[in-house]
Design brief:
By secondary structure, this protein is of the alpha+beta class. The protein folds into two domains: 147 residues, Fructose-1,6-Bisphosphatase, Chain A, domain 1; 108 residues, D-Maltodextrin-Binding Protein, domain 2. 34% of the residues lie in helices and 30% in strands. The protein starts with 9 loop residues before the first helix and ends with a helix. The chain contains eight helices and 15 strands. The protein is globular. The strands form three sheets. An eight-stranded mixed sheet has the order 4-3-5-6-7-8-9-10, with helices on both faces. It has a five-stranded mixed sheet with strand order 12-11-13-15-14, with helices on both faces. The chain has a two-stranded antiparallel sheet with strand order 1-2.
Length: 281
């Protein structure tokens, strides 16, 4: 079975990702104090942020497993927030990596932060084939295979058929993600008209995964996010039967510098309404 067909060889890819997540978890667990987690390596990653030691260690764990896959015959291009673009031969397969999505949570010792890895057999979000998200705080593993469903800790997710609404017709629970509190404040009133309660988890990958379960009704990122942060969560939502919307309402290139507005919900109506808040006509 060729590793260059990600869907046919999904178990082998996921086994490597789980090894990387286990190793990165041990590195984080070994640095429980904030001083250790704030330590920088002295360089700026390809995504433009100063690289933390914990980011580098998590990324090393992923790339060691990718090296093993390449040694077994896989040919792909890896795109990572820290190292940038790394070629492992030729072909259409892309591996998108955010070693720690929610780095601020991780370095401050707050709950949700995640390793996010997506594999695509083409160049856009329509080509996402495999997704893996490991929540370091909750110790939960989400994964999805295009056409094969979404899973939480190896068990198929049991998502909401549609959003839960309060008596006045608002969403019961909405996840909001942002890189700028001012943007959230500007959209606060209209989003309050749409949702009764909010949660800000601090990790786009984790927030998307919550939409794939019965935990939240929808999520919206009120600032444009890197597609690297969201790619795995996008497929997990889709394979749970949910809807994801981007600002272009179409394919998003799977590129290092690509950013996009983003929302996800259980229904087309709610997803489109959320998108209208962050991408006004």
């Amino acid at each position: 079975m060729s590793l260059n067909d990600p869907i046919a060889s999904a178990d082998r890819w996921f086994a490597r990702f789980r090894e990387a997540a286990d190793r990165a978890s041990r590195e984080l667990d070994g640095r429980p104090d904030i001083e250790a987690r704030l330590r920088e390596v002295g360089t700026v990653g390809a995504g433009g942020d100063r690289t933390l030691e914990i980011d580098a260690l998590a990324e090393d764990a992923v790339f060691d497993e990718l090296n093993r896959l390449a040694g077994e015959g896989a040919s792909f291009t890896a795109i990572s927030e820290e190292r940038g673009v790394v070629n492992y031969g030729t072909g259409n397969v892309r591996v998108l990596i955010d070693p720690i999505d929610g780095s601020l949570n991780a370095k401050r010792g707050l709950g949700h932060c995640a390793m996010s890895i997506a594999v695509a057999d083409g160049s856009t979000t329509d080509d996402l084939a495999l997704a893996f998200v490991w929540d370091f705080g909750a110790r939960e593993a989400f994964h999805a295979v295009r056409g094969g469903g979404a899973f939480l800790n190896g068990v198929p997710v049991a998502p909401l058929v549609e959003e839960r609404l309060t008596e006045d017709g608002r969403l019961e629970l909405l996840c909001i993600e942002t890189s700028d509190a001012r943007c959230t404040a500007q959209l606060g009133a209209p989003l309050a008209d749409m949702a009764y309660k909010w949660r800000i988890l601090g990790s786009i990958a984790v927030a998307l995964c919550q939409v794939a379960t019965p935990r939240v009704d929808a999520m919206v990122n009120v600032t444009r996010c890197r597609i690297l942060d969201a790619a795995a969560g996008v497929l997990i939502v889709r394979e749970s039967g949910g809807i994801v919307r981007f600002e272009t309402n179409g394919r998003v290139p799977l590129e290092l510098e690509q950013r996009t507005s983003l929302c996800a919900a259980r229904s087309v109506t709610v997803a489109d309404e959320l998108l209208a808040y962050v991408v006004p006509a």
